[in-house]
Design a protein that fits this description.
Elements lengths: L12 H35 L3 H6 L9 E4 L6 H11 L2 H14 L9 H13 L5 E4 L2 H10 L10 E9 L5 E8 L2 E3 L5 E2 H8 L3 E3 L5 E3 L4 E3 L1 E9 L3 E6 L2 E4 L4 E4 L4 E2 L3 E4 L10 E12 L7 E8 L2 E6 L2 E5 L19 E10 L15
Parallel strand pairs: 1-2, 5-11, 6-14
Antiparallel strand pairs: 3-4, 3-10, 7-10, 8-9, 11-20, 12-13, 15-16, 16-17, 16-20, 17-18, 18-19
Helix pairs in contact: 4-5, 5-6
Length: about 350
């Protein structure tokens, strides 16, 4: 009996069944993949959790809020400093206390302090844990006044001490300060920069000091000392310097290592032998020159480091801070450098003062 000719397109029953199962399996996998993707998107949308909230997970700090600040055009520096101030616990607490006592005063005149207090209150009282807020009133007031903060801004006190080398009389003048503005050098550390800031300078030749006791110009030694140590120590690294040969300002990309824990030695302060501080915020300048670039803030909150880039807030590893030390070479592709450092004192209340018997 002649066999039936097999069609070239026909398949053996077993092979056809295998392909059928394979196609079915592929279809199920595609369906499962699509369902999984849809479920993931639904979970994110349904939970309403932000990226930052998911990063924190069940470790989100109780009662804390993390809000980005809208940029109104060239306000990134202001936004970065505002974030650092908000996460300065003593400053925030006093400002919110001020707001609670004065918010119902109908005749209260709006000023920089009230606008800042209102901004902080909006953030801390928000029902949402994360988000973006527009500091419009505060920015408008800053542009209107263009002056330093008043009222509850923390200050420590510096003493400008000059000793006449003829009669040994010490003349001291107290100066309040908002921050320590220190010169920097290539491949140095914050500790060495502070050591130079508090070092003794000899006044001679054309720079002689007029001594009231000698009633004449005399050679003298001059130094700066901290008379009252602050609870919050703000250090400004002088990265922008006027270069006479270029007749313009230049950014110094010097590598300056700043520690997570900082000690002020007795050479800088007679108030306390060794004051210890912990780094909690760094304002970073991104860019190669003083007239261009961008500012962001890296802030420690509840043992987590976060990056505040205007309206964007995200968690970062602590090791990221090392990338902002600066460059060991003059010309480098790294243009992101630490500019302002915020330290909080570990223990103590910052009220210690020197003994008045030493002339300070």
């Amino acid at each position: 009996m002649a066999k039936l000719a097999r069609s070239p397109t026909a398949s053996p029953p077993a092979a056809a069944a295998d392909r059928h199962r394979s196609a079915a399996g592929s279809g199920l996998r595609s369906l499962a993949s699509a369902a999984s993707g849809w479920f993931d998107r639904w979970a994110v949308m349904g939970s309403g959790l932000s990226k930052l909230e998911r990063a924190f997970g069940d470790q989100f700090p109780e009662g804390e809020r993390y809000f980005g600040l809208e940029n109104f055009g060239n306000t990134c520096y202001c936004n970065s400093v505002l974030q650092a101030l908000y996460y300065c616990a003593p400053f925030r607490e006093q400002l919110l206390e001020y707001y609670s006592k004065n918010r119902n005063l109908e005749d209260a005149e709006e000023n920089l302090l009230t606008c800042l207090a209102d901004l902080f209150s909006q953030i801390s009282a928000s029902k949402k844990k994360t988000g973006v807020i527009a500091p419009k009133r505060f920015i408008q007031m800053v542009r209107k006044l263009n002056e330093y903060f008043r009222g509850y801004m923390h200050q420590g006190t510096l003493t400008n001490e000059t000793r006449c080398l003829m009669c040994e009389t010490i003349t001291a003048k107290d100066e309040t300060f908002f921050d320590l503005s220190v010169d920097i050098e290539q491949n140095s550390s914050l500790t060495s920069c502070l050591k130079n800031f508090f070092s003794t300078e000899t006044l001679n030749a054309d720079d002689k000091f007029f001594c009231d006791k000698c009633c004449s110009l005399q050679e003298a030694e001059k130094r700066m000392k901290i008379k009252k140590v602050p609870q919050t120590l703000v250090i400004h690294l002088k990265r922008f310097k006027f270069i006479e040969q270029l007749n313009r300002n230049k950014k110094l990309s010097y590598r300056v290592v700043y520690p997570l824990e900082l000690k002020l030695s007795s050479s800088s302060s007679d108030a306390v032998a060794d004051c210890e501080y912990s780094l909690f915020a760094v304002v970073v300048h991104l860019g190669s020159g003083p007239n261009q670039g961008h500012y962001v803030a890296k802030i420690k909150s509840h043992d987590h480091w976060l990056s505040f880039d205007d309206d964007n807030v995200e968690m970062i590893p602590e090791s990221t801070l090392q990338t902002f030390y600066g460059s060991s070479r003059e010309y480098s592709g790294n243009t992101d450098h630490g500019y302002i450092l915020f330290y909080e004192r570990i223990g103590g209340n910052g009220d210690e003062k020197t003994d008045s018997s030493d002339g300070v």
